[in-house]
# Entry
Amino acid sequence: MQQGSYQIKLYFKFLNFLGDNLGLHEILGFSPSFRVKHPCGICWISFDDINNVYCEDGVTLRNAENYYADVRELAHNVTEECVFHKGTLYRVYKNLCVDVMHDIFEGVAQYDLAKILHYYIYTKKHFTLKQLNDRILAFPYEEHENAPPTLSETNIKKKITLSCREMMTFVRNFTFLIGDLIPEDDDCWELVLHFKTMVDAIMDKVSDENHPNYLKILIQEYLSLLNEFFPKSMKPKHHHLIHYPRVLKRMGPLWNLSSIRYEGKHRESKQISRNAICKINVCHTIAIKTQLKLNYRFLNTDSCDFKILDYKHSGNKIKVADLPRANFPESVGAELEQLQWLLLFNKKINVGDIIIDYDSPVDPLFYEIKFLLLTHSESTVYVLVQMIECTYDLHFRAFMFCNYVNKYVCFSDDDLQSFSIVSKYEGKIRISNF
Ligand SMILES: [Zn+2]
# Structure
């Protein structure tokens, strides 16, 4: 690498293996089956103890000493010494990787939400499966959300087999879908709220030094509550959660380690392979098509611009003098064009959405978007918002719209970068980390 007149040689250290649980076990020298006596690649937990251990404190973690003893005796699920020990500084017993996609959204959520729904529909009879499915179909999902399909009786009895993206939508909106049908004093609702809070903490994109300890408490509480309500129901994927706080501390935000991007790329490759007419060397075809696609992205000037701005004209013009008084800059002009929607950072913003300012010195400030406005020169989009007051609802664990405050503020599209913009559903503000 050339830095001014210096030539710098960079070395990279092989730090960690990322992948799904099965792939990692196969490539790192553990048995690929999870129905074995010691199913975890990070510790020695016994299959029978999974339901009793809710944090790492009580388990024997794999280390250099016990790993090489296991290699000699082929014990504790080790089938061979990891092949990557040869010629690298990488050591499998230090490998700290978890896969949120498969552990949570294609794992714990599928099992646990099925049990919770079964309890509410067939034991407590708070609502019927048809009622739930009607709500799943009618719910106003956001544009970027993958709407989940309706659920069958088999789903509820065994596990809810949704794709990762569908399950993310389902978990994000679960309390809004059924919350009003559940009595305030329902015990199992506490489990639902714990689950949602835990998933939110796991999916947090930023992490400070207190976050691992906070997550450890949330996971401990959730697993212990789960065992109370649905005894002996935990699978190895539930057990993986106890390692999350340590992985978070060492590797940073957990969603960055997820397999979801690799699975997405794998899907692309499979599609190319299926569509290829010539099957002589499919890997070569996939490599060329992937490179062409990457080149197209590099040549497309917008591809590296993170602020992708787009909007739809409504056709209506509005005089600034007719708008509520706000801090419009002088350069705004006398007339503005009203927009139907605004696309910023790939997120569609609509009138009625909520802007949250978390940097406020006391509590977060909430604003509702009243107008999306474009200047005559089409150089800037202004968002006229009205401040609102919100209360916190413990049953939904959500902020609820309370009333309007007679204060209007004008933000430019550049200002919006520092705020969180979310939608609301029946007055409940849909805040989520994922
Ligand atoms: Zn473990």
Notes: The chain has a mean pLDDT of 92.
